[in-house]
Design brief:
By secondary structure, the chain is an alpha+beta fold. 28% of the residues lie in helices and 32% in strands. The strands form three sheets. An eight-stranded antiparallel β-sheet has the order 3-4-5-12-11-10-9-6, sandwiched between helices.
Length: 261
């Protein structure tokens, strides 16, 4: 009887241990340079995917394809451009994609360097997914879902280069005072899913097929903008069906342990 009780007790302990490990895997904390966040997911540091030399903290959940980036800013950025969308949420806009692209998911340096050489020759650069350097890189994928192409136009006898962006739907554009500080929220979703060939190029999860993409950019000023303590910038990208959204990020950031900025 005693031996049986011990076996049952051991089995129960193992079940609890496995359950605890499973729970921790789905609520893994992101320990960053600027803040520690607890957002559900199987997050791993992914600085190897960095496409710009900005020194951000990059976290990637390979099971869902979601990306979260954190960095420090001296102040709020692109406030005026984001403010234009305060009263136009749910509208489709290429300009909104441009703001998100430049501010949160910029073009990879390798791509812009190659594109510049082509433009200097007067030829149209390839699309981002045609460059093999980005194979398997989720940040290249997300950049490709905001940026469309470079367009050459004749202007007074000379060529002018313009950046064209994909249309996106603005789902949130708002400035808000919350516990612990002031926040600027900006969130958009792509108008259409990525092509299958693009998903394969960047090794995105199979669940991304026929899914639109959600992008978010949260700028948080601890103590309020007037406090002058710097700004924590948190950007993310995921599928539109994901529970990860700008409100969840704001909730976690406002309650997080933010390191001196």
């Amino acid at each position: 009887m005693i031996a049986t009780s011990i076996r049952i007790g051991s089995r129960g302990f193992i079940i609890l241990l496995i359950a605890g490990l499973a729970a921790s895997c789905h609520s893994q904390e992101m320990n960053g340079t600027y803040a520690d966040l607890s957002i559900p997911g199987q997050w791993k540091s992914a600085k190897q995917f960095a496409s710009q030399p900005f020194g951000e903290d990059i976290f990637y959940d390979a099971s869902t394809g979601s990306v979260v980036q954190m960095n420090q800013q001296a102040g709020m950025r692109r406030v005026g451009e984001i403010a234009k969308f305060f009263s136009t949420t749910q509208s489709s806009s290429k300009d909104a994609a441009g703001v998100m692209s430049v501010g949160a998911f910029p073009l990879p340096v390798v791509y812009t360097e190659k594109a510049s050489k082509d433009l200097a020759k007067g030829t149209k650069p390839p699309r981002i997914w045609d460059i093999k350097d980005g194979e398997g890189n989720p940040l290249w994928f997300y950049a490709s879902q905001l940026f469309d192409s470079y367009q050459l136009h004749d202007s007074g006898g000379s060529s002018e280069v313009r950046e064209e962006f994909q249309p996106v739907r603005v789902t949130k554009a708002e400035q808000r005072s919350v516990q612990g500080g002031d926040a600027l929220l900006f969130e958009v979703e792509s108008d259409k899913p990525a092509a299958d060939a693009v998903l394969k190029r960047f090794h995105m999860p199979a669940a991304y097929k026929d899914q639109r993409i959600r992008f978010g950019w949260l700028q948080f000023a601890p103590g309020g903008i007037a406090a002058g303590q710097g700004v924590l910038s948190v950007t993310f990208a995921t599928s539109a069906s994901s529970p990860l959204n700008i409100e969840e990020v704001l909730k976690q950031v406002s309650a997080a342990k933010i390191k001196p900025l």
